[in-house]
Amino acid sequence: MSEQFHKLTVSKLEKPIKDAVRISFTLPKHLIKEFSYHPGQHLLIEFEIEGESYRRTYSLNSCPFLEEDLQISIKRVKAGKVSNFANDQLKEGDTLKVMKPKGRFFAQITAEAYKSYYLFAAGSGITPIFSILKSILVASPYSQVYLFYGNKNQDSILFNEELKSLQAEYKQRLEIVHILSNPGLWSSWESWKGKKGRINSREIEDFINHHPPIAQQTEYFICGPSSMNLDVRKSLMELGIPADLIHIEHFSANQDEGIRKIDSVDHANIELSYQKNSFHFEMKKGQTILQGLKENGIEVPYSCESGVCGSCVAKLREGSAEMKTCMALDDKDIEEGYILNCQALATSERLKIEIP
Ligand code: FES
């Protein structure tokens, strides 16, 4: 097993809704420090299913400010190998290979902050948002949280019960607006008193107008399908919100984004620093850095291999590289030299990169 993975035991399995499973891991004492995390970060997990290994990234929905087990939630995806395995076959007491929490999508929460947080989530995009929301309520007593949460119908709301009890407990500091795209039969349409439709620019403007910030400092977190994320960001920026206050986590590739064709260099020399080690290898034309690393037997973090999860992020120290697609980094990250190894191809003969 790669040195970065740790075997964690599944301590509890729950079914919050029909097609999702919530998985808790109790950490052994010696891993507690290594597995400390910020709300919004994710775990990279390797599943062994029928003799094959599958890596997936799942956001933590637990709260790091409480003495809770680490917890993730996995919604069933039609024909999804891992999500169906987790929902149907995984058992309490099983062990999974898990890397320590990572991710650049997180909230830096402090007890002194006096802030208004606006959170936007759709479907299972609620998982990191739930961790952020709960952490703000628990650990930032002067801050206010507004959640705008989109789902298909009432049965698909992943944290419905937990959100209701948080709303009852933190009446003055938490406002939640649900919006359903397809509440179901006519009787459900009739009985549903909340919003109907999808999170779009008109709804976002309406949401913010109805929930003006209580504090001068605001921050915005978005997690949902890529198309929704980009729409919300665009709408917020049109309302004059600076880009650096808007944080986005993608959980599925947006096919509309398109894959760029990159004319890469043949025999590029790569120098990689990772965990105090230095590796040198050569890449072929058309190869991504991750493909080059794998071909040379160098084990580094990665998961989706489609530019979405951000597990393979690296910093370009010298040379140039271009990415075929990139949903996991924002413009500022890219300006600062961050790249995704699974998407980046060398466009200069020599590259120096570092995995943080
Ligand atoms: S492995 Fe997921 S973005 Fe590269």
Account of the 3D structure:
By secondary structure, the chain is an alpha/beta fold. The protein contains eight helices and 19 strands. The strands form four sheets. Strands 4-3-6-1-2-5 form a six-stranded antiparallel beta sheet, with helices on one face. Strand 3 and strand 4 form a beta hairpin. The longest helix has 14 residues. The site of FE2/S2 (inorganic) cluster has 13 residues, from loops.
Any descriptors?
8 helices, 6-stranded parallel β-sheet, 356 residues, binds FE2/S2 (inorganic) cluster, alpha/beta
Poorly predicted sequence stretches spanning 5 or more consecutive residues: 253-257
Major β-sheet strand ordering:
4-3-6-1-2-5
Instruction: State the order of secondary-structure elements, H for helix, E for strand.
Output: EEEEEHEEHEHEHEHEHEEEHEEHEEE
What's the count of strands?
Answer: 19
Q: What is the percentage of strand-forming residues? A: 25-35%
Give the topology.
Elements: E1 5-14, E2 20-25, E3 42-49, E4 52-59, E5 70-75, H1 81-88, E6 95-99, E7 115-122, H2 126-139, E8 144-151, H3 160-169, E9 174-180, H4 186-191, E10 195-196, H5 201-210, E11 217-224, H6 226-238, E12 246-250, E13 268-274, E14 277-283, H7 289-295, E15 313-318, E16 321-323, H8 331-335, E17 338-340, E18 344-346, E19 350-355
Helix pairs in contact: 5-6
